[in-house]
Amino acid sequence: MSKRQHRGLGLLGFILVMVWPIVAIGQEDLGNPQNGKVLFEKHCMHCHGVKGDGDGADTQFLMVGPANFHSLESRSKTDWELMNIITFGAIFSPMHDWADRLTEDERWDVLRYIRLLAPFNPVARLPISPGGNG
Ligand code: HEC
Question: Which residues in 52-90 are b (16+ Cβ under 10 Å) and which e?
Answer without folding.
Answer: bbbebeebeeeeeebbbbbeeebbbbebeebbebbeeee
